[in-house]
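[Discussion] Sanity-checking designs against the backbone

I'm trying to build intuition for which residues belong where. Below is a structure token string of 290 positions. I'd appreciate it if someone posts a full sequence so I can compare it with mine line by line.
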């Protein structure tokens, strides 16, 4: 078969188009096959919304009125309002109302399962709630679930989670002695960091999560966790190793900032500083009798 120069140009263009399509799918979070057929989560969300809107008048009248939003959360950093997408304020108010009614972690999980205010839910496989001992005195809060977490439904179970477990084990901690979760409960597409709007929508649930676990010490893992929950004005390279006060439901909890283990995997030279953070945390544990 004879091919002209123009044929090679067409072939090269086709390859470029295919590569671009694959890169777009990776960016949107479609980086693996986990089912025999695709699932349109946007359509499922719209169907649930349509069913609620078409509920019979009797059903609507019998439904209990929603609880009034309780503005008990600490003020948000200004950067969140500046970058929050449209609709975030309404979704946050709905989340605050839903979280306020929760009396247990099971209630909180159920409220999150029913909550459609966070767009991350549309592209994630499942909710990633928490893991470890819910009665522990120590609570670890990271940034967002990744691919392994999205598949298993538990936080910090991938390579970075294994590194974090190893780090904590050297100061006498395992998942029987701490409880762990994230600032958002669904995996962001492409494993990117959650944006300010996504964090703001999930914040009422995170605050309630902390209130229900009622820890004596917090370990904030990663820049988004430290900036969002502790209000740090500097990046993680400057905030790590520092103690902050996180106030939830009228209780102030000491919180230490440290690197995310995913950053340590990319930057092994920072492991020395992370180990210093672990020793700092261990000293505070001993002072508190934990």
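Best answer:
Here's mine. Compare freely.
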């Amino acid at each position: 078969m004879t091919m002209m120069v123009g044929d090679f140009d067409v072939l090269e263009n086709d390859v470029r188009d295919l590569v671009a399509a694959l890169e777009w799918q990776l960016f949107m979070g479609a980086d693996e096959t986990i089912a025999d057929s695709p699932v349109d989560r946007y359509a499922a969300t719209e169907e649930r919304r349509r069913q609620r809107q078409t509920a019979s008048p009797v059903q609507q009248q019998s439904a209990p009125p929603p609880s009034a939003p309780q503005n008990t959360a600490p003020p948000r950093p200004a950067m969140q309002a500046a970058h929050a997408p449209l609709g975030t304020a309404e979704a946050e108010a709905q989340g605050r109302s839903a979280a306020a009614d929760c009396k247990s972690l099971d209630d909180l999980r159920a409220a999150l399962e029913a909550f459609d205010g966070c767009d991350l839910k549309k592209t994630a496989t499942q909710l990633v709630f928490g893991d470890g001992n819910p009665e522990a005195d120590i609570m670890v809060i990271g940034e967002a679930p990744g691919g392994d977490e999205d598949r298993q439904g538990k936080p910090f179970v991938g390579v970075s989670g294994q590194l974090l477990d190893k780090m904590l084990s050297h100061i006498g901690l395992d998942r029987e002695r701490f409880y762990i979760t994230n600032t958002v409960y669904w995996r962001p597409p492409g494993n990117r960091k959650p944006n300010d709007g996504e964090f703001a929508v999930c914040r009422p649930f995170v605050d309630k999560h902390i209130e229900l676990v009622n820890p004596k010490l917090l370990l904030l893992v990663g820049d988004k966790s430290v900036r969002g929950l502790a209000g740090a004005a500097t990046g993680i390279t400057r905030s790590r190793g520092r103690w902050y006060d996180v106030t939830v439901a009228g209780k102030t909890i000491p919180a230490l900032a440290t690197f995310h283990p995913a950053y340590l995997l990319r930057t092994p030279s920072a492991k020395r500083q992370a180990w210093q953070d672990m020793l700092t945390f261990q000293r505070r544990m001993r002072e508190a009798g934990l």
